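Table 4 source record.
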Amino acid sequence: MKRTVRIGPRLVGPGQPTLIVAEIGINHNGQVDLAKKLVDAAAGAGCDAVKFQKRSPEHCVPFDQMNVMRETPWGYITYLEYRYRVELGYDEFRDIDAHCRQKGVIWFASCWDKPSVDFLEAFDPPCYKIPSAAVTDLQLLGRYKTTGKPLVLSTGMSTLAEIRTAVRVLGEEGLVLLHSTSTYPCQPHELNLKVIPALQAEFDVPIGYSGHEVGLVPSALAVALGASLVERHITLDRSMWGSDHAASIEPAGLERLVKYIRTAEQAVGDGIKRVYESERPAIKRLRKRTEPLSLPAESPSTTCRTALPSAEGNPLEN
């Protein structure tokens, strides 16, 4: 049995309900009131957690991009100033922390630099999310590890070799890996959801999915393929200004997604072929009653044999 990871009051891993995370990110556009409305939408839809992003722009913005001018809701300003505008400070996060506690929603954040990890430590989050951009930043990975908190690592833009290196730095204990493709929005042919079982076979950690597609079906399908955590960006309005809104889910869609995921959990089952009590009336009504025939012995060379686990632990053969 694969190991599980505790995030706040919840266990994440095989046999546990999917942890559904609403990625608010920077879709609050630097406004704490909008951030709290997004928390309300996530809680109302039945999500388990919300996630924010935290950056120190002076550390994260490439030097050659700092003074590039950009049209924004705050006017024609430099990219560096724009990045400061969409950041929330200590007082805003303290307000968000209180609001999430009131709503009964887990909250945490992805930190894009070491000072941001230091900043979030003041709030004692139940875990940290490591963005795909940091998979190869071994110094930042090391800073995350020193917190001693559970870590959720997205793997977009990464080769399997890069993921293996990151896992060696972080260790498998308390780690969750998320399959992801870092395209916003991502086209279906690049989602590659079969990576989820491939990562399950490679690592002894819970595997989840961070989706950037338009629509809901792939995220529910990810659960059927074994995802223990599903993260999707959310917004109040996909037409809002900002880089992530177009690949986000609005509140009505988020409610549907939660229902689809919970249905997928039930529908996957345990893989044991059985006859259900609900089928008994159909057996009586539809099956013919005839005398048993003497069947010829099966020949292994001519019979297709597929073994499935049975409720009694013996293989069932078709």
